[in-house]
Amino acid sequence: MSVVFDNLDVFLEGMRRTLELSVLSFAIAMVLGTIVAGFRVSPVPPLRWAGTTYVELVRNTPLLVLMFIMVFGFPSIGLTYSYYVSAIIVLSAYTGTFVSETVRSGINAVSTGQAEAARAIGLTFPQTLSLVVMPQALRTVVAPLGGIFIALLKNSSLAVAINVPELTSAAEDIGTATASFIPAYLGAAAAYLMLTVPSGFAVAWIERKVAIKR
Amino acid sequence: MTAPFLGDALGPRGRRTTRIVSVLSALVIAGFVAVAISRLGDRGQLDESRWEPFTDPSVQRFLLEGLRATVEVAVVSMIGAIVIGALMALARLSRTPPVRWLATTYVEFFRGVPLILLIFFSAFGLPSYGVDLSVFWYLALGLIIYNGAVLGEIFRAGILSLDRGQSEAAYSLGLTYWQSMLLVVIPQAARRMIPAIVSQLVTLLKDTSLGAAIGYFELLRRARVTGEFYVNPLQALFVAAVMYIIVNFALSRLARWLEVRQRRRFGAGSISVTGVEDLAVVGAQAQAAMGGAGGTAT
Questions:
Q1: Smallest Cβ distance to B45: which of A48, A77, A203?
Q2: B91 in Cβ contact with B102 (< 8 Å)
Q3: CA dist B274 to A33, A119, B240, B285, Å?
Q4: 0.90 exceeded by the pTM?
Q5: Which of A87, A174, B137, B295 is deepest in the core (most CB within 10 A)?
Q6: ipTM score of the complex?
């Protein structure tokens, strides 16, 4: 196990990068997913179709395929980004589909009376959605969104396949350098648990904070 | 008309606004598509020569073989994961504390760790301990261990979602714990879990693509090889993505259809799976369903 303790700084740096990658991607995915969820419940057919097409296509493609398309496919149409930016774009786009589905289920859980009342006092659709429905919808889906963030923490490990330094690549580097893979992977597993388990507690705390007492 | 969610039908002004916004947004979307297509065209990505390899039967066979390898490892892993998951669910519900603790540790540990780490562990770590398997089994092992933990939670949620009255009735008829489990609880719980299992199969099928990272010759790996050989990576990955989407879309639809059917039959008891990637969601839903069921039942 000395492999882990000798390389503690490498693991900590890996954890920091994994966290950074996940938090940035999650922030973008939240914005994207919420907008797409709005599209999918709007009365405007082209927006609904566009939202559905995006969600169904991206959600059913493996994340690694999306990463490879971004890194190996897109340069041939002149879209070349650094590996780090590519990873963030792909992780956000992929996670955005799950956020969208979750937020949409939250919107459907808000009683229709709320929207009807909003319309009765003259609010437009965007106003109804953003001022009345969305604030209630987002509160009800804090736990599932937290689950998505934890899944994203784990999914960010696929960035290792496109050469983005993070926790999994840190473990690989240490394993290769010291020729002892098992301790290195166990160290990384422990580091991931140190990220995912507290995230679970944080989500539970936020959920309690934003709950509406009826 | 499929009513959009927000309450009753729109009035004349709302309909007019909707029409205007529809036309505008359709134009914007069409603009995006046009820019994308012209960009592809300008760079010669739509040229026949780039797509021609995929009309060659040997290339088609090469990729379909990859799809077969993907499905093969997915099916084998799914069977293994269902066995592990069932054992874990029963162990977590066991009345013997140490058994419960062991299963809880297994589930919590493997759920919290990225799958690719487990696959690297089995492919690069195990050989140094003298374990010598084919790359198929290294991949399958990682998938089984991970999905065993995930399915364990789904199964447990399914069993717990069943009304307590069922097992209480079984006990009062004189059935033992195992008899009530096997004859009364599991047959009912299993039916509720089928949609969740199918949707986990979609996730597992997508995850088999990680095999490409350890050299298992499945669909993604073969698409990469094809793309490098014919110098058309974009087209090759596109074809692979379409193949994945067709299979996964069909499975997702099946899961949704099963869930809707389930809802009709059993009411709120079934566990919702649509749009769910992580198990925490299923767990939360199961808890909510249990709370709801408890509220109405008593």
A1: A77
A2: yes
A3: 16, 29, 24, 12
A4: no
A5: A87
A6: 0.88
